[in-house]
Amino acid sequence: MQLFALGLNHHTAPLAVREQVAFDPMRLPQALVELTHGREVREAAILSTCNRTELYCAAEAPEAAAQWLAEYHRLQPQNISPYLYTLPSRDAVRHMFRVASGLDSMVLGEPQILGQMKQAARVAENAGTLGTLLHKLFQKTFAVAKEVRSTTAIGANIVSMAAATVHLAERIFENIDGQQVLFIGAGEMIELCAAHFAARKPKRISVANRTLERGAALATRFGGDAMRLEGIGDRLAEYDVIVSCTASPLPIIGLGMVERAIRARRHRPMVMVDLAVPRDIEPEIVKLDDVFLYTLDDLGLIVESGVESREKAVVEAEGIIASRVDGFLHWLEARETVPTIRALRDSAERMRRREFEQALKLLARGEDPQRVLEALSHGLTNKLMHGPTAVLSQTDGPSRGDIAELIARIYRLHPED
Q1: Does residue 278 contact residue 249 with C-beta atoms inside 8 Å?
Q2: 203-219 pLDDT tens trace
Q3: Exposed site from 58, 105, 154, 279, fewest CB < 10 Å?
């Protein structure tokens, strides 16, 4: 039985493909039952988030899981196969450790993915598809993620424009969870920023975009709402944080629009972050007392200061993960010898029982107990030694030396002494 991970994520597939293979949380238990019923998949768990869909399986062959994924979502296999990755044993273990530690996330070091993986394990366990192998793997995964987060600074430093945007907002608002955030645009940079802000659980997220459908698709991923670009002026006062990044050749937010919003807010502070080139927000707005306007240059200074320390944390985290992967694979390999160990012990137990029963008969006939015990010990020794000595005696050629060395190692012998 093989251990493997199969799936796609934000590195390998665009949103249009990822959303086609996303799982409804309410139907996930039944999906797991279907995956493991009457197929070559023995154990399975499914992680389905906005950025990834991954199947963690113990199975005879990964092809069965890939085929099931396409069938379940009523897709042609060739439509998703270019985006899928299949990771065998060692790579699968390392991948799970990296995912749980936040090293494979769109937001490097974000903590939410660990909770999502724990939920995936709970669902699989309740569905009865989490066997010994995957249960052990998930527990080890959670332990590694905890170690990485507690012994490295993987989540402590700012190394992206998106993370720096949140950092600037937190300079003004101590807690983002009480603020309303407006994103203007729906491109990759806004998507990254939205992911960072969503991790802080703001009171509200809205997306304004020229195409309402695209804005709504992004907003839905983070539990927000959408509006058309032309509606910003009427609703700007509702928002505490505004992040803008469009391809507009002219500013979208002007001085007059912001002055009206500040009056409507009764001069409560407002953070504005302009990530666009050319700029979406008129630079004169920076002069307003209650507006904190930041540009790409401001974010660049923050990012530069965090790169070195974050790079060190990533190296440390990867080192921890590499070591723990080896540890888990050692357990996995040792597990393969369990049937042999069990058979060896069963054989020894049968020998012991026969000798013991023979000794009881001799004692019942009145034989001398000391002689009976002597016979019992000799009988056990002869039977236990018969196998290895017979193999050694019957083997010829170069392999005889190998077997002798193996026997010496097993019984911790020192023939040269």
Answers
A1: yes
A2: 999 999 999 999 999 99
A3: 279
Q: Does a cis peptide bond (omega within 30 degrees of 0) precede residue 278?
A: yes
| Any domain includes 316 | no
Query: One of 50, 57, 193, 245 is an active-site residue; which one?
Result: 50
| Residues 54-86: tens digit of each pLDDT | 999 998 778 889 999 999 999 999 999 999 999
- From the list 136, 145, 140, the residue with the least C-alpha distance to 43 is 136
Q: What is the CATH number of the domain that holds 119?
A: 3.30.460.30
Same domain, 166 and 146: no
Q: Tell me how many domains the chain contains.
A: 3
Residue 50: active-site member: yes
Model confidence pTM above 0.90: no
